[in-house]
């Protein structure tokens, strides 16, 4: 475990606290977003930079996917998120010399992301080559309450000498090209200049640009205005064309004098509306922003975040860095979803273009539960988007030769964009994760599935499973030729995780149809079909290796050759040093698979099996995926290895702040961010909610003296506070309903007036602390 | 079964006997080659044409292979055979009107491939728009004795009126671009104009071109000369540049007068020599051709083929078409190999650019045995080429994480060029097929493995198997995550064919090392290593489904869901109508897999098992590969279903003459061509040679009254002649050694003076004639 710096501010991420390698990580960590629009955390003056840009959820371009060997049902088109018109650049010249911190190391330079105010503040003081001391303060926000609005407060001061300052503030389309790694030149061609400009307009203090993607035909309008304060003699002017709006502020500053402005940026998108509509919408958004003004926008931001933290905050006693990291991670989850609408949440949300902006099953698996318990509105938006792709998923099911619906492994528009079927179309488990995210939302919020269009998602995924499973001579139902979450073990038979998740999907669909027979009838679900689902679910085959006393991740897994960590390539990730033909049938695990089943399908395993399974897989799991540590942390906690649980929790929590995977410059790892909260509350807190009631089993590792968290359960806020003295659970809303809650297996009833307390249990694990593969100890 | 046209000439393929769809099939069927150079059977006047061209074995260009999702060990470069300088075009104008049979339907038009003279003769008579009757006779050969030489005898006659004739005879490089289906534009870029010209020269009657590929740096020189006979007043002239040599013959013909020439074309290739060397080599070849002259070349051709047929001919009494087809197919096998040197035999040999000119394991599996028994020199060339790729195969083994060597699934230069690993790198069985082809050559010719550089091939493949197999708790050796010959069942565990072939590979390597201990020592093979190979071979796991009494093609195959031929897409090939994710775990078989094991590893199965297995797989095999029917024919014969055996034999035999697969325009299916002979002698003839002795078990279907074939066994020619009266086996060479031979299980001894006779056995099959999937009855 790294030394915790005890002076970590509990709510602020300061750049100076970290030593990031290159500007890319700061661009991701300091990205601001609201689920509708996101801006990378590039410096105002645009340099140094790795990949600046502004993204909008659901704004992507298509490109050809070509295969050296084609086959039936391979997707023909990829999708990639693209940078929209970017207005973050504000370039400064002082007496003809541009501000560039690489050329002129500043006397003082700090950037701070404030998780309570929802702003990124930057302060830089430097001395120009001619000796004039200057100070720049800028504050940036992407509004969590007005989805189109980004605002930047920018101000410079001539500290000790008179200077001539020129500030150039941009809004530019097609100016932030993605790095396209694809060797097919047609991909770069499609993505390099993705927008066709409709028109641009400008006036003295700003202007607007309206454009549309060439292939996917998505219209985008961006508008900018500046509310300036200029000393006498200075002036502002704007020029531009269809691709850019450039506003220039010129001022002579006397010592101590300042010049600056509030820059309002607005973005709207639509696939339906014509350019004139887009123009009207973006101007309306701009009017709204100016009307609130900088003070109003920051007040709204603060107030929105106050409400969020009031129901979501986490306190970690004894580890200030971890405390900050989890808050940062929850901020990312909120940023990804606050104003989400009719678009997916990408694996990197709107903080970068990693994974081409695609969403994966991990969003439903690792982000939706957190949102459901902390910000249900965000979960609802996310799930409604997925439900909106149901028709596409039905078409895909037909291509794959199954009934019902089969959702895309990676996508922005709902269509499958994965080019490698053994790790996508074969990873059929994703459908269960998606379906059960809907189910959990309804359960935890106390609303109905139909509110999030989830009823038919459950039915159609159940139909997919029913047409995929195969009843063997043993009378049990099998799933052959699938790939589980562990992508180092592909195209296998009877993956335990997949089989158990299919079982739960079938049961949930049956239960929903039984609870709402009129809906079931509308979807032509007969009692016979429901009975079939239940029968299949009850007879799902779960392989077990009796000689080892553990569950093979899939049939025969425990008979595979062991990975020879001593002489086989020891470098990680394994997939970059060994061929699939070798990896697929070795006992080397990329990411929690059976261990994920121990968490998500915990009731399929006895406590002894859970402990033995965890030990077995721990020695074989290399965590080459950032998704892994969360599950390992949760299960480590549940089997009583609290130090290990904390280590994995820290690894997950610092995934981006410490660039654990070395690729945070592509955007934050949203699922792992969310996973750090799940590791805390589901692992150390022991939270479960599977049988429609809340369960807790709080544990405290030696290094922590307190864990407190909050969550929303069926409309009420609940606070859980664990110290060495025990756990107190409170209803945080006055006049609330009573809530039954299980603590360490005992049913208690929580009311607004009566908190519940319970002593802290110190676990006595039945297994030794497990070892990891060499070089894959927790990176905490 | 189609009606046999009883008037099929026994040695001639006449175009008029077939109704091919478009000019492409004739271009393949009438292609002439010698294993070094090959020319497509395009008409002299170059039109109508689908894809004309001249190919040379081993002359290819590289191109990028790019993947939408890259992974470790994926090949980065593809290879594709490319057309070299083409000299087949001889265009004719009569009184200013070009000969084009599409414009002016001829009075008479016939092309004939003569399998005894090894020539393609063409005769056309037509009346020009102005009413002059003309006759054109041309004869083409690619010399089977002088590898560089193609010769064309071309002559026209003005039958009834005086005409002015202009004949333009070309040699052109970069003139026959391939159709490039790859969507990646860089592939087309690499292949469209593959040659860079070094220089060209010409003189009055011909010239030469020297050039080299841009990427693979293979030098090619082509030279042309014309030996003309021109009526008085006519003349010949040649002009050209670095890319072409154009010879023009002009003559005024009186009625009954002729003009024509012999065109000598020579090609040489080298990766090492400089342009001046290439020029000298090609001119020497041209001198050699002119020195022999047309009469000499045709006499050599005839004499070479007389010798070949004398040791290889097949007679089929009662089916004249089948008789012709098998001779045509043997001619293809000979054409592919006669002058082969330091290059592979592609799946289409030199008759077309299908499969990019790549060689596959089926060449060793289905062509090498035929060559070994009929034209061992060709087999030796083929195997020596494969042995020359051993170092590359060692490098590939390292990438795949195994020891020893792993040969390429598809290649021209030895490097893996397959872009889809589940059907290539996972199809590890190919290594056993290759190794055992070396073993069979040594066995059948009575020479040593070292003569074909096969010793280390056996050792290195055995080492690959030894490092790939995995000993399980049952003490048996398993192979996990492989793909067998059946590409509709991918990435499976314990494929029976693969396991049995690995076993044989290990045993053969052990036996070779024991027989030649000094070689073994040179390759550091210790007695311990040999013992390990034998131990592994003895303990290979072979799955068996006791309840069904059959062998699952791989572990659990018989528990997969059945393919629903009624409601699942009924269209073939299945892979164009269903996704791999569905196909891979269904009981639908693309091509003989377990059934191939019944043939190649027959001693692993009892007679009852063979019969039951065949019936089971017959109902599930859709023959979406042209390789399948051969194995099905052989096994059908062995289990006594002789009518079915004949039906599959005919399907295989007519694969190209009747364009059974609809893709013969891309070149002939060489493995299936060779397979038709194997189906005849190994199936109906019951030929086996596995325990170092010859075995026969001749059978006659009702529709045939005689089968006679010849083969070479340890340097001696043997003739087998089966009629209803029984079988006679003769040594065809005087003064030969005595040969032990088993006929229907009885050991006999054959000497030059004493033929062996045996009565014909009529089988009584223990199973009903099996049924095929709907729509996949034999296409005979």
Give the secondary structure arrangement, pairings included.
The structure is a homodimer of 780-residue chains.
Chain A: E1 12-14, H1 24-29, E2 32-33, E3 37-39, E4 54-56, E5 60-64, E6 77-81, E7 90-94, E8 97-98, E9 108-114, E10 119-127, E11 133-142, E12 149-158, E13 163-172, H2 185-192, E14 195-203, E15 206-213, E16 219-229, E17 235-240, E18 244-253, E19 258-270, H3 275-312, E20 314-317, H4 320-337, H5 361-374, H6 376-388, H7 390-400, H8 430-445, H9 455-468, E21 470-471, E22 477-478, H10 496-515, H11 517-522, H12 527-538, E23 561-562, H13 580-583, E24 586-587, H14 594-600, H15 607-618, H16 628-638, H17 642-653, H18 670-684, E25 694-696, E26 706-713, E27 716-723, E28 726-731, E29 739-743, E30 746-750, E31 756-758
Parallel strand pairs in A: 23-24, 25-29
Antiparallel strand pairs in A: 1-9, 2-3, 3-4, 5-6, 7-8, 7-13, 9-10, 10-11, 11-12, 12-19, 13-18, 14-15, 15-16, 16-19, 17-18, 20-26, 21-22, 26-27, 27-28, 28-31, 29-30
Helix pairs in contact in A: 4-18, 5-6, 5-8, 5-18, 6-8, 8-9, 8-10, 9-10, 10-12, 10-14, 14-16, 16-17, 16-18, 17-18
């Amino acid at each position: 475990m790294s030394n915790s710096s005890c002076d970590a501010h509990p709510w602020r991420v300061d750049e100076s606290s970290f030593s990031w390698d290159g500007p890319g990580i700061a661009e991701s960590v300091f990205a601001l977003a609201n689920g509708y629009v996101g801006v990378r955390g590039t410096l105002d003056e645009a340099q140094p930079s790795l990949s600046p840009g502004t993204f909008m959820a659901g704004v992507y371009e298509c490109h050809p996917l070509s295969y050296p060997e084609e086959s039936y049902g391979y997707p023909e088109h990829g999708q990639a998120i693209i940078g929209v018109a970017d207005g973050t650049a504000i370039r400064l010249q002082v007496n003809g010399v541009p501000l560039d911190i690489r050329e002129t190391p500043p006397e003082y330079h700090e950037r701070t992301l404030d998780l309570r105010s929802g702003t990124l503040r930057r302060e830089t003081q430097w001395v120009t080559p001619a000796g004039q001391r200057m100070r720049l303060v800028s504050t940036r926000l992407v509004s969590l309450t007005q989805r189109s609005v980004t605002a930047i407060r920018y101000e410079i001061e001539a500290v000790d000498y008179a200077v001539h300052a020129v500030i150039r503030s941009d809004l530019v389309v097609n100016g932030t090209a993605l790095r396209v790694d694809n060797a097919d030149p047609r991909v770069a061609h499609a993505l390099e200049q993705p927008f066709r400009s409709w028109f641009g307009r400008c006036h003295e203090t700003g202007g607007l640009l309206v454009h549309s993607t060439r292939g996917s035909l998505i219209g985008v309008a961006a508008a900018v205005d500046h509310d300036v304060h200029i000393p006498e003699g200075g002036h502002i002017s704007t020029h531009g064309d269809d691709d850019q709006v450039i506003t220039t502020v010129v001022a002579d500053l006397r010592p101590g004098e300042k010049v600056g402005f509030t820059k309002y940026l607005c973005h709207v998108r639509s696939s339906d509306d014509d350019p004139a509509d887009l123009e009207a919408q973006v101007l309306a958004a701009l009017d709204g922003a100016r009307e609130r003004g900088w003070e109003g926008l920051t007040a709204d931001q603060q107030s929105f975040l106050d409400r969020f933290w009031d129901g979501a905050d986490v306190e970690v006693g004894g580890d200030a860095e971890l405390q900050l990291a989890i808050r940062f991670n929850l901020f990312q989850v909120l940023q990804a979803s606050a104003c989400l609408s009719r678009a997916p949440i990408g694996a990197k949300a709107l903080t970068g273009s990693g994974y081409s902006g695609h969403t994966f099953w991990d969003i439903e698996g690792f982000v939706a539960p957190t949102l459901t318990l902390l910000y249900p509105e965000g979960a609802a938006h996310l799930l409604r988007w997925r439900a909106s792709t149901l028709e596409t998923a039905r078409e895909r099911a037909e291509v794959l030769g199954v009934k019902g619906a089969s959702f895309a492994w990676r996508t922005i528009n709902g269509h499958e964009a994965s080019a490698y079927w053994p790790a996508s179309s074969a990873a059929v488990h994703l459908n269960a994760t998606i379906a059960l995210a809907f189910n959990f939302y309804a359960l935890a919020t106390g609303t109905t599935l139909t509110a999030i269009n989830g009823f038919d998602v459950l039915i159609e995924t159940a139909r997919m499973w029913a047409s995929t499973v195969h009843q063997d001579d043993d009378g049990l139902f099998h799933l052959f030729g699938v790939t589980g979450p562990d992508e180092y073990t592909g195209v296998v038979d009877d993956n335990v995780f997949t089989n158990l998740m299919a079982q739960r999907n079938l049961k949930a669909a049956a239960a929903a149809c039984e609870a709402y027979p009129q809906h079931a009838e509308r979807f032509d679900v007969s009692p016979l079909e429901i009975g079939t689902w239940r029968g299949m679910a009850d007879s799902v085959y779960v392989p077990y290796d009796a000689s080892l006393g553990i569950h093979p991740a899939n049939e025969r897994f425990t008979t595979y050759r062991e990975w020879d960590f001593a002489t086989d390539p020891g470098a990680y990730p394994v997939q970059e040093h060994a061929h699939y033909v070798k990896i697929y049938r070795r006992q080397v695990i990329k990411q929690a698979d059976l261990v994920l089943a121990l968490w998500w399908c915990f009731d399929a395993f006895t406590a002894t099996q859970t402990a033995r399974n965890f030990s077995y897989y721990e020695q074989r799991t290399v965590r080459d995926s950032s998704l892994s540590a969360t599950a390992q942390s949760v299960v480590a906690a549940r089997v009583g290895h609290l130090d290990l649980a904390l280590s994995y929790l820290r690894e997950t929590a610092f995934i981006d702040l410490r660039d654990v995977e070395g690729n945070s410059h592509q955007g934050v790892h949203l699922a792992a961010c969310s996973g750090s909260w799940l590791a805390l509350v589901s692992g150390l807190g022991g939270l479960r909610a599977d049988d429609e009631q809340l369960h807790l089993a709080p544990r405290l590792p030696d290094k922590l003296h307190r864990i407190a968290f909050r969550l929303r359960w069926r409309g009420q806020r609940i606070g859980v506070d664990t110290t060495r003295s025990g756990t107190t659970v409170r209803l945080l809303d006055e006049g609330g309903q009573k809530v039954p809650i299980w603590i360490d297996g005992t049913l208690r009833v929580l009311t607004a007036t009566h908190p519940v307390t319970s002593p802290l249990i110190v676990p006595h694990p039945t297994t030794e602390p497990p070892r990891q593969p060499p070089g894959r100890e927790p990176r905490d």
